[in-house]
Amino acid sequence: MAIAKQYLKTKPVCKVTFTVPAEEAKKVAVVGDFNNWNPKGSMLKKLKNGNFKGTFELPKEGSYEFKYIIDGNYVNEAEADRYQWNDYAGSENAVLEL
C-alpha cells in the first residue's frame, strides 16, 4: 500500500493518491474523516497490474483518520503517517497528515 501527496501552489489542497495492491479483491474504497466514512464516491479503480488506485483533493493543514474497505473488510494503511485509537470503531485508524 502506498500514499503519494502532491501539494498544489494554486489551491489550498493536497492531491492524495492512494494505491492498494489487492489482486484478488473486487472492490476497494478509502473512507475517513474527509468523506464522513462513506464509500460512495471514494471507490478506487482497479488497474491491470492488480492494484487499486484513486486520487482525491483534500484540504491542506489537516489530519484525517481513514481506512480502506477491501471487499467489505476494514484495513489500515501500512505506511500511514501515524495511527490513532478510535473509541467508536474500537480499533486504531490510520492517520494522514497534510
- Could you name the CATH homologous superfamily? Immunoglobulins
Topology order in helix (H) and strand (E) letters? EEEEEEEEE
Arithmetic mean of pLDDT: 95
* C-alpha-based Rg, rounded: 13 Å
CATH architecture: Sandwich
Secondary structural class = mainly beta
* DSSP helix fraction: under 10%
Name the poorly predicted regions.
Answer: none
- Beta-strand segment tally: 9
Protein name: Glycoside hydrolase
InterPro entries: AMPK1_CBM (IPR032640), CBM20 (IPR002044), Ig-like_fold (IPR013783), Ig_E-set (IPR014756)
Keywords: Hydrolase
Pfam families: AMPK1_CBM (PF16561)
Q: What labels would you give this structure?
A:
98 residues, mainly beta, Immunoglobulin-like, five-stranded antiparallel sheet, four-stranded antiparallel sheet, globular, Ig-like_fold
Structure description:
The chain has 98 residues and is mostly beta strands. The chain has a single domain, classed as Immunoglobulin-like (Sandwich). It is built from no helices and nine strands. The strands form two sheets. Strands 3, 6, 7, 8 and 9 form a five-stranded antiparallel β-sheet that branches. Strands 1-2-5-4 form a four-stranded antiparallel β-sheet, with no helix packed on it. Strand 6 (63-70) and strand 7 form a beta hairpin. It is globular, with a radius of gyration of 13 Å. The model has no long low-confidence stretch (mean pLDDT 95).
